[in-house]
Design goal:
Chain lengths: 249, 249
């Protein structure tokens, strides 16, 4: 059995709105001497996508609402940044000193609505892509056109989670692979139903990719080879648990 | 930069109490033609460890308490299995039709206190290892003695999580690597504080390993090569968020 391999794809230049990200990623892939193969998986950080999609805001142009000004001291953020977080959110899930966790318009639950002010010039804030599944599909399609190779694309972001220390990378956009691997109804060799029913493969893939990307290494993408995934048109929104099924809302 | 590589280690025989698991894992590693290297990471499923540590119970010998008999119909489990789950737990976190989530004696929050009745003969249930950090240290030490190689060992289990569909593998035991990578106080190249503060590297490692292990492939361990981790004696209990810091208890 061949091992799974994970290659870090270096960023060759600062990304800005309108850049041809698939082209830049392909350049990065050739730079490390890799030949794309069918069924490779390309993991791209949401930040790289947001930058080329123009989801970068100069906070100096934001006028905070009264509510944003009221809660800004509690969450210990600039009122203009607070305004942006609220605008990106459907609801506030938890708000305590120095921290706000919201449900984004996509349905993701994370700190600061995913807004990010690191690895970008001062006064700028990066928002999550508007539709990360669509971003993933667009990259996949563009690479297919440029190279003839069918790969899967996963958009990653770094989220915290309840009960455990530390953050991990999870999938917020997926194209070309089934984000969930369903074992329901399958039997083991002792004829027992399996305890584990559904594996969030896409989240395991982004976590694996984070191990080569890190946060200070200027590696916005990873190429993963050797995973036997199921092809699918389902997106990462399948990973968002519906309120009806969620015990922890 | 070399890629990260993940090799599945096949199980060569059924595991039973008292087996020399490190020896069997080394046999599995030679079977796939790999030579152990310094700083490799060995990920082992908790189930393999529980089996050799005798954490397997015949449920026919269990006498359920009155409380276990009362809640068994709600969580839709055998009253004897319910009794076992309660005995493994510090408290019940959520209990709804067909599902019980508890905090284990170790502090992990998961379904059924981690109890597992799959991939084992009927009437048997596998409990989590009593002290998975100790199990990890023991395997690491034994392999060092047998081979002279220093590797890190991570014990994995498959847990669900709030808000997202699907389960992922997380680290319940760690020896030889720092489970958390701390970026606090570090600056990016624009002199911003990093948004991401602490990465749960050990959980990303187990998620990566799950991608080669699967649930029906008889692969209880994985060897990961090429991760630049920090050596540490801290265990996986560092990944358990203290109640004081947890917004979602």
């Amino acid at each position: 059995m061949n091992p799974i391999q994970i290659f870090g794809i270096p960023k060759l230049a600062e990304l800005t709105a309108g850049d041809d990200l698939p082209r830049l990623l392909l350049d990065g892939i050739s730079r490390i001497g890799i030949q794309l193969q069918e069924r490779d998986i390309l993991v791209v950080t949401s930040k790289a996508i947001s930058k080329v999609e123009g989801r970068v805001i100069d906070i100096r142009g934001i006028i905070p609402s009264r509510f944003a000004r009221e809660i800004a001291p509690l969450i210990q953020k600039d009122p203009r940044v607070t305004e942006l977080i609220l605008a990106e959110s459907k609801r506030i899930v938890r708000m305590v000193r120095g921290l706000v966790i919201t449900e984004t318009r996509h349905g993701f639950i994370c700190a600061n609505a995913g807004l990010d002010q690191s690895n970008i010039a001062k006064n700028l804030a990066v928002l999550l892509p508007l539709d990360p599944d669509k971003s993933a599909r667009r990259i996949r399609e563009s690479i297919r056109k440029k190279t003839g190779v069918n790969l899967a694309v996963v958009v990653s972001d770094t989220f915290g989670r309840p009960w455990r220390e530390g953050q991990t990378d999870i999938a917020i956009g997926v194209a070309g692979l089934a984000p969930l691997l369903d074992y329901r109804g399958k039997k083991d060799r002792f004829d027992n139903e399996l305890r584990v029913t559904v594996i969030a493969v896409a989240d395991e893939i982004t976590s694996a990719a984070e191990l080569v990307m890190g946060k200070t290494k200027n590696i916005p993408a990873a190429l993963i080879r050797g995973i036997d995934y199921a092809s699918s048109n389902a997106g990462a929104h399948k990973l968002v648990r519906s309120p009806r099924r969620d015990l922890f809302r």
